[in-house]
Amino acid sequence: MFGCLVAGRLVQAAPQQVAEDKFVFDLPDYENINHVVVFMLGTIPFPEGMGGSVYFCYPDQSGMAVWQLLGFVTNEKPSAIFKISGLKSGKGSQHPFGAMNLTQTPTVAQIGISVELLENLAQQTPVASAAVSSVDSFTEFTQKMLDNFYNFASSFAVTQAQMTPNPSEAFIPANVVLKW
Length: 180
Description:
Elements: E1 2-5, E2 16-19, E3 22-28, E4 35-40, E5 50-59, E6 65-73, E7 79-83, E8 108-117, H1 118-123, H2 137-154, H3 174-179
Antiparallel strand pairs: 1-4, 2-3, 3-8, 4-7, 5-6, 5-8
């Protein structure tokens, strides 16, 4: 029903089912993972009115499991990318995996998927830093490039009193670049 993908690794398409409505993927060497993709395989849809909460679990310094809500997948949103690299120092949140006796290894984290009602999914608040930017990469690149251009051009700014006449140079007022 679910798959999990980490860049540079094989796709995991067989989660461990730990309860009737709960599934877990192991993520060995999780310290070297930045993003994880969770997706539905397309073979079995969620039952009507159901979806899956996606959680990230890692062992804290004392070896206890810390669970953090990343987001969700549904029949209408069958895949999601989550940034997990900044979550390893945060604190846990409420989760449906608490009563389970899942083994925790110091170098292995887990992705947990809990099948729940869509109304419950809408009321949950994921960890803010897990969301991947919704701005496409070209737009983000363009914005950063133009900010960099403005900062570079501004570093050469001089006042009118500092200007020396030079017929071979053209000067563009900084407010023209800002208006553009």
